[in-house]
Design goal:
It is found in: Cytoplasm; Nucleus. Belongs to the glycosyltransferase 8 family. Glycogenin subfamily. 40% of the residues lie in helices and 14% in strands. The strands form three sheets. Strands 3-2-1-4-7-6 form a six-stranded mixed β-sheet, sandwiched between helices. It has 327 residues and is of the alpha/beta class. The protein is built from 13 helices and ten strands. It folds into two domains: 1-289, Alpha-Beta Complex (Spore Coat Polysaccharide Biosynthesis Protein SpsA, Chain A), CATH 3.90.550; 290-327, no CATH class. The protein is globular. The structure holds uridine-5'-diphosphate (UDP) and manganese (II) ion. Residues 13-17, 20, 87, 91, 107-109, 140, 219-220 line the site of uridine-5'-diphosphate (UDP). Residues 13-17, 20, 87, 91, 107-109, 140, 219-220 line the site of uridine-5'-diphosphate.
Amino acid sequence: MSSSCSSDQAFVTLATNDNYAKGAMVLGKSLKNHKTSRKLVALVGPHVSDPSREVLRQIYDEVRLVDVLDSGDTAHLAMMKRPDLGVTFTKLHCWTLTHYSKCVFMDADTLVLSNIDELFDREELSAAPDPGWPDCFNSGVFVFRPSNETYGKLLQYCTEHGSFDGGDQGVLNGFFSNWSTADITKHLPFIYNMSSIAIYTYLPAFKQYGANAKVVHFLGQTKPWSYTYDPKERRVRGDTHEASSHPSFLLQWWALYSSSVVPMLQAAYGDQPFLSGCEEELSQIAHLAPPPMSSEERKQKWEQGQADYMGIDSFDNIQKKLDAFLK
Ligand code: UDP
Ligand code: MN
């Protein structure tokens, strides 16, 4: 069938910030290491830094800026009505890549373990079951056909019905609502989107089939980049009990990130501050001042309850501001 070569087919991912961009870099590297014959496309949000974009451009064939608020009218209007679905709208943008006939979307927190080009033999919308509710598909890996018509319908669906889980997975399952029953060829085997939740929910199956996994998905709160890594000992630090993944997959992610991605990031950042998450740098940078933060970034942090109580947001500084204001 068609798994030989097609330049009008692509793997697509999304990163709206520098952390998810790290995930996208590792994903792109893993696809290339397993010699995909397809194009690689990264959608990036406006908050991804220039050095991160530069590295993404070295790994991906196409790095496309998506900013819902600046793009077409339908998207803008839809966004105005449902500002809560910001990141979700951004993911739906993948349907606008109409210079490709067929694509496979992959979350930035996935890692490819072997060549998966055979996925392009599948049709829209093919995806693997969600481990939490197997009548829904998990939207971390799915096959789709870019189409402005479908994109418009998706946005319309999104504004009218919202998302039952607040994210893209709820919207997509609502829109492609007959996935679970209509066509078994659209059910991807779980090994194309294996979240190690399976380790905890069905250990014997994981022991039996886990070695066949082709894609690991680090879904859930704690992402690979949330940990620190000791490259010398080849160990991941932090509470790996809570890890959504088997320690060996986490190690594979870090091995690839620290060996292939960190050097590219270091080159791209040059003299600018950059934290790789590898352990030795933590002691080196401890004495350096933190990078200056814009007032907009600081406002966001405050609103997320992450005020810098020991530094710029300390009581002394706030009092000084108040004093100046009262004078
Ligand atoms: N994403 C992003 N920025 C965010 C959140 C999500 O770029 O702040 C993208 C990224 O590609 C990510 C995907 O949306 O992999 C889905 O989010 P996530 O993987 O965090 O959800 P989960 O798989 O844990 O449900
Ligand atoms: Mn994910």
